[in-house]
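Following up on my earlier thread - several people asked me to post the actual chain instead of describing it. Fair enough. Here it is, all 615 residues.
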Amino acid sequence: MAALAAACSPLFPAHASGPVAATDLDEVVVTATRTARTQDQSLAAVSVIDRERIERLQPPSLPALLRGLPGVSLANNGGPGKSTSLYLRGTESDHVLVLVDGVKIGSATSGGAALQDIPVELVERIEIVRGPFSSLYGSEALGGVVQIFTRRPKGAFAPYLGVGIGSERTRNLSAGVAGRAGEGWYSLGAAHTETDGIDAYRGDPSRATPEPYLDPDRDGYRNSSVTLQGGYRFGEHWDAEARVFRAQAHNEYDGSQNNEADNVQQVVAARLRYTADGPLTLVLNAGRSADLSDAYMDGVYSSTFDTRRAVASLQADIGIGEGLLSAGLDWQGDEVDSTTVYTVDRRHNRALFAQWQQEIGKHALQASLRRDDNSQFGGRTTGSALWGWDFADALRLTASYGTAFKAPTFNELYFTGYGNPDLRPETSDSIELGLRGEHGHGGWAINAFQSEIDDLIAYDSRLVDDTHPYGQPNNIDRARIRGLELVGHATLAGWLLQANASWLNPRNDSNGASAGNVLPRRARRTARLEADRELGRFSIGATVNAAGERFDDLANRKRMAGYATVDLRVGYALAPQWQLRLGTDNVFDRDYETAKFYRQPGRSWLLSLRYSGGG
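Reply from S.P.:
Thanks for posting it. Predicted structure:
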């Protein structure tokens, strides 16, 4: 069990309620409990994307892979490499905690994570946990947690290589090697992509005056990334790991006072674990992430927004009878280095947490409690309780309740001429009821949920004074989000099928002029269907993504129509380790938007050749 957990939980401690065979590796999840549990044991709503599925779907980017997954809605500002916001179960884009190999990433100034800059070629696995998890992770885990694991070895020596060309002069190259030797393992990977892109911004045709930032040209993008990891087991009780990830991107865009940016996403982390002879595991984690951005206008330097985050945690897992107690402490420090002056440019957060997991006959329980102490806003306590009942063969009923919070960003608090240092954290209460089943041909799940969010931070024009001529953000909004999710997978007549559909009612619940309106950029109906089949050396597949109408503003005046897109793919095995693949996205050339006035790519294609050695 220790070896398995070491392979799949790079920064969290390993423990499970029983032995797990090596063939079950892809079923183990760690994000929902900070411990290793099989996906069947999880009481939370979890989606897992493994490397096999990534290879099958042939996504051109990480946002393309995530689009339309259960609970996931994306808003993209104009195609490949452009700013992409992820909304989970109707919450805000900064209500989603994003981890890379266990380390929190994202901008402490804007609050978002640059998912568009993480190359899908270096991703081994993604776990998406839907629901409030501040009781395990603190701020931002209000709508859920997305954890991205970079590629790791699956054999003694496993090299890989990929090259691709596509529409809009897209060029891709990736290569890496991973392996195991004795008590150690290593993984090294690199990826490069570049594209001429599309004209991202079409402008607002209703303007009476000329558009100031309209630039009718192609907005290109390039990205060079590298990941380096290694680990070693020192005897029977100790093992350690270290890893580095860096993505460096150059992006061209329209629609603002700048039109170019150099961006860096970086994670450096280490982990030391002690496993006792008895039911005790201790894990010490430390890491540092960076979100760095320099903006330009026609090649002339304009501004810098750099944020750096240091994190550390100590966690103990203790088996007590038939249960597992996890307890520990987290520490986080954020700092900002920018050409814009912030009245406060650093803060820290300390937290204590505890969790109890137990199975009693046909019942399962997970309860957690956390206390955060933040240097800016003081203390905050969150908790959650999840319950499951296997009331029949292959059928499980689940219910949960959780509280969560989101700390204000540096921009909202301290941006000169705008920030409001008196802001309170946004808070939420959520309930969920679910039913799921597993059968010989596949499985399914249905989840109904409601979240009430208080003290939502929004622009308040009433806070206008001499030092804030344009107003300030304030805790003025409330929201109520209700939803229903259907998720299923099956193998029928040789076809591998994955499907989900969501109905969402994300409403502004405040008393202002926008009371009752739909929250911006959330589609109330979404669906996704994947179908894939192997025919000898050939493989074929299709993905359909559909979304209903959405609005780009709180007043619900800027409407974006619903849409449906179809992606097709075909592959051919030149040899056991060589694959030739062709993917065509948006084959019917559908014109649609997920952010108002920003175009999405039309029909596009990508031809790739891949080599996967070892195993």
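The radius of gyration is 24 Å. That should answer part of your original question.
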